[in-house]
Amino acid sequence: MTDTRSDWLPQPVIYRVNGDGVITRVNEAWRLFAVDNGEDDLGDGAVGKRLWDYLTDPTLARIYHDLLRLVSASGRAVTFAYRCDSPVEKRHMEMTIRPIGDEVEFENRFVSIEPQTPRAFFDRMVKDPEAVPICSICQRLKAEGMWADALETFDAGRLRLEDSPMALAPTLCPECKRTLEGKAAGAGC
Known about the structure:
This protein is of the alpha+beta class.
């Protein structure tokens, strides 16, 4: 998964959940992606657990719950773009949530992968009132009241890296929140 050539992208990461939001299956790409991101125990260990246990931001969890309900009720797929960066890669992705029988499938497709300078600030995602908000969808940080690309935020001096990685709090920026709420309300399905 560390190959970042533009002519090669990993296979889609796919998982399915039942009507209660319990993960029922994951594909091999899920397992590989988990290992590549240092989550060795997340492979098959996620099967049987609730999707909501992995969504630490209450707003994002609510929107995913609404999307799951919409897709199940309408029988139509919903697709949106997002980023899932690692310390060394910018990963532009697209998620499609679609009904498959009694379950709902989440397909996460890699659109592009770009190398980036390793950044220690991705090392700590925590729930802490002092933590810097990071959007779970676009990966922008909020500093001094502004949402901006992480590297731009540091380059502009709005945040400074100290000796240890800063705490990040996953959330949604206003733009991504509006987009996902629109999808959850049935717009753009």
